[in-house]
Amino acid sequence: MLRVVYFLAFVFVLVACGTTNNGSGSAIKDSLPPPNSGDNEGDFLYSLYTEKDVYDEFGDLAIFAELTYVGDEESIDIFHGGSAFHFPFIERTREFDVGYAMNEPLLTTTLFKDVPLREKYAFAGGYSDEDTEEFQQFVQTIIDKGFPEGEYIMNGSAQFYLNNPAFTTNDKKYDMSASIGFTVMKDVK
After folding, report:
1. Alpha-carbon torsion 68, 73, 77, 78, what sign?
2. In the chain, what are the domain boundaries?
3. Residues 59 and 47: beta-carbon distance below 8 Å
4. What is the pLDDT of residue 45?
5. What architecture is the 32-184 domain classified under in CATH?
6. 110, exposed or middle or buried, with CB in 10 Å at 0-12, 13-18, 19+?
7. Are 19 and 151 in contact (CB under 8 A)?
8. Using one digit for the tens of pLDDT, what is the confidence trace for 18-51?
C-alpha cells in the first residue's frame, strides 16, 4: 500500500512539473495548417493551395485560389468585388495579422461547369500611421523585397453573390474559406 502512495505522489509531482509554462517560449507550438485546403457550398468548390511548404526568403510565392462551379448549368455568372478571392494572412513568429485590401467595384465573372477560376496570390496589404513601427517595417519589407523569414498562415476566402446585389436584397452571399500554412527561410536548398 505504501508503494502505491509513493508511486501516485511521484506521478503527481512529475505531471505538475511537466505542465509549467514560464513564458520562455519553450511550449510546443501548434503545427502549421496543411499546404492545401478547401471548402464547398452549394454548387461551388473553393480551394487554396501552395506549391511548396517552404520558400526562400524574399522569393516568389506560388499560392493559388480556385473556385469551381459543379452545378447542373453549363455556366453561371457570379458577382463580386475586385476579385472573388481574398488572401489575408498571419505571420505567426511576429504575431502580425495582415489584412487584404481590394477595390470594391461590382464585377461579374462567368464560371463554366467544372472549369476552375484560378488566381495567383499577390500581396495587397498595407499599414497606417496607427500601426506599430515593427508592423509598418514588416509590411514595407514585403512591399519592397518580398516575404521575410517566418511562419505564415493564409486564411483565404472566396466571396460572391449569384445575383447582382444592387438589384436584390435577398440574395445569398457565398463566403467559403480555407487556411494553409507555409514557412519562409533563408537559403532554402
Report:
1. negative
2. 32-184
3. no
4. 99
5. Sandwich (2.60)
6. exposed
7. no
8. 333 333 333 446 899 999 999 999 999 999 999 9
